[in-house]
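User: Some background: our group keeps a shared notebook of sequences we're curious about, and every so often someone picks one and asks for a predicted structure to add to the entry. Today it's my turn. The entry only has the sequence so far, pasted here. Could you supply the structure so I can complete it?
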Amino acid sequence: MELLDLKRSILLPNFPIPPEYKTHTQDQKTEKGDTMSADSLNQWEFLKHLTYEGARERYGLAFEGDVKERIDFELFTIKTMGFAGYFLIVSDFIKAGRDSGVFIGPGRGSAAGSVVAYCIGITNIDPIKYNLLFERFLNPDRKSMPDIDTDFDDEGRQKVIDYVVQKYGKSQVAQIITYGTMAAKMSIKDVARVMDLPLSDSNALAKLIPEKPGISLKRVLHAPMSAKDGEKSLSEKEGLASEDLDSVRRIREIYNGSDLQAKVLHEAEILEGSVRNTGIHAAGIIIAPKDLTELLPVSTAKDSDLWVTQIEGSVIEEAGVIKMDFLGLKTLTIIKNALQLIKLNYGIEIDIDSIPLDDEKTYQLYQKGETNATFQFESPGMQKHLRDLKPDKFADLIAMNALYRPGPLQYIPNFIKRKHGAEEISYDLPEMAEYLAETYGITVYQEQVMLLSQSIGGFSKGDADVLRKAMGKKQKAVLDKMKKQFIDGAVQKGHPADKLEKIWTDWEAFAQYAFNKSHSTCYAFVAYQTAYLKAHYPSEYMAAVLNNAGSLEKITFFMEECKRMTLEVLGPDINESLKGFAVNKKGDPLWPGRTKRCG
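Assistant: Of course. Here's the predicted structure to add to the notebook entry:
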């Protein structure tokens, strides 16, 4: 029997463009020999027009020179890769969302490195101002589908999905299936139920599997126990302690027996990893150029009005359709709610995307570590570091957002000491200061390695992205090859070989922890917006936070924060309370609905 092969090139939906941009009537060959359809070329002409129009609005007179050169480089790459339609589709539904009052994030992930995306309204962070790189998003030397994920406020997300369904048709839009598989404990319990093993015995067997996320029954039953028993042992790879290893010994004794429990374990071992149930991807939506039934198998689901694909997200693009992630971000709902309350109480409308990034009151909040209920910076560990760092510029927040994660966490004390002059800031080469000065000489971002490899070693933009990926994934063979390329290129530029060896060694140590600056900048900006609102409009902001707290434990926690801020949360009042938490005329948050305005 021959397997059905559904693999095909990406088929973008036919995005409608004005007739004046349909200037191409014939397909064209690119420099690399690929064929570009007339439709794709016409879409690119329209994208170019929109980008130039947006650039004049975003940059004004600064549009000429370096900015235009960067835009033209991006447009050329998008044209040769055939992705103009993708940018137009995303820009269109984001604009439709904004026009209908949906709160949309400034961007996320590497897409924020695209000036084209910034000019046409997909993102709201200036990549040139923050040294964000397009090639971190799209590598001009390697064709891969762009991935633009977008954050929407929780309530507005569905509005945008409805718009996409209306525009492209219900038969061309679908949600994506997810497959749940049997893990170690579940496979034991399912087999035990079928084979009539008593529930108490079934639970006792399952409890012998160590509590380690992702541990497999096959390894529990057969892998070496410790380093002396062989490589990739349970004590090394899974980090099992002695009591866990005792449980493993016990389950292996049962497995080697001949009773019903042993039979259950043998059958469970076979079934582990099998598909047990299906679900729907929380954010993924696909948009096809024609009726989906002509492209891939679909089904219906009780939890969705849309069709659901029968191919999961990790391989969906191989079937020729594009996947978009429509993500709901609760923080955007909080900001939206806070701005509504501010307008209600003060009669002013705040453009949250245009607030000053040098606001003293906001930085005082960060310097005191009073970040409970703000985005990204609320953990006790982060608060401690903020009090030590005393951030006074936006670049500090971007860096802390990138550093506060396993691995780079160890560099935070050095970062703090260097900011305050307690540790010397030095550079192996003077040229490195241009890109490392903002992080006090510490390599924090992948983009820094990419920029330095170009300026010092003469790497192309594409090579710099390959290096970034190889360092992050520790691809030794690729790194060995690129090391020679880097040192040879840098020596030709007159740099000393001994310094280059040190730089490369440092990069290999740092780069596996280095973070995507594009994503860090976007989320630091959303975090700053929440801190700004908390600093200037504490009552309204905390009322919005309480409205979106969710659990009773969270409400209790945030009410304690209100108390610390000297905001008195009042009980319900038939004359003053609104549907949710709000703020009364005296500035007291009411339940549902109120916080006491401070000051």
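Suggested note for the entry: Residues 593-599 have pLDDT under 50 and may be disordered. The first helix runs from residue 38 to 59.
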